[in-house]
Amino acid sequence: MTDIRELNERIERESAFIELLNLELDKVIIGQRYMLDRLLIGLLANGHILLEGVPGLAKTLAIKTLAQAIDAQFSRIQFTPDLLPADLIGTMIYSQKQEQFSVRKGPVFANFILADEINRAPAKVQSALLEAMQERNVTIGDTTHKLPEPFLVLATQNPVEQEGTYPLPEAQVDRFMMKVVISYPTKEDERKIVRENLAAEFPKPNKVVSTDQIIRARSIVREVYMDEKIEKYIIDIVFATRFPKDHGLAKYQSLISFGASPRASISLAIAAKAYAFIKRRGYVIPEDVRAVCMDVLRHRIGLTYEAEAENITTEQIVNEILNTVEVP
Fold this sequence. Notes:
By secondary structure, this protein is an alpha/beta fold. It has two domains: 4-193 and 208-215, P-loop containing nucleotide triphosphate hydrolases (Rossmann fold); 225-324, Magnesium chelatase subunit I, C-Terminal domain (Helicase, Ruva Protein, domain 3). Helices cover 47% and strands 15% of the residues. The chain contains 14 helices and eleven strands. The protein has helices at residues 4-14, 16-28, 33-45, 59-70, 85-89, 123-135, 170-173, 187-198, 211-221, 228-242, 262-278, 286-297, 305-309, 314-324, and strands spanning 49-52, 74-78, 90-95, 100-105, 112-116, 137-140, 143-146, 152-157, 178-181, 256-258, 302-303.
């Protein structure tokens, strides 16, 4: 039997660095608390994040600041239509002096990868990155190289301009633990952003956390207690996306072409544990599941043409499921 009190105390001690990390992030990033929390969940749950938002919402700055605060390697890769897989993972270079081939590693060999506008690159490049995300290693020539730990990919896509883009197939989108949609800051936050950017010196974050601390935190996140009732709640939510009729949502039966995969159940469980850890709690409550549910499920539900004709979104379906499925 898990000793909840002892686990709670230990997690409160071990999660103290989250406060330090948030202080450093808040120095540079104004507003966008929602995005920063999701970045931390991805980091602690060992999952990758797909960010959708118009340009200029501090997506690049957020992950760069996170990498600086954690003392980790950061790579920014601008995806373009002429990008090749070798530009991403690296290639074999022939040395005339040594008369042999040597490996030149690409920018994917870093702790934090920002794949900027991932939908601008062709499928070959996207699949090279998604393979690295899934396998956590890269094969160049006949040698397999392990990627560094921790390894987090933040991919961004612009929802507005779709000309000359290569939309990610559903099977590849499913590799992302969360799809986070971010919006504009408030008037007050925007005023602070303008003021900060016009100041003589732009704030810089201090290195407050080591990569070893993050790796240790990841193993502790998995120890966060999850009751059987919470597990059942997660499974009920995911099954409601597959068989809406069985869960009192018959009106969505013809609007959903396919539901969330088992990867969604795993992601929902680990993201809820990471959310509880951020809140410095040793156990998961239904509110933790509900807090991360939209980001975990919105990109995993397929809509029929009928749904698109009626302007039904996956967000509406997820909200309806959360309002219908019984909370433990």
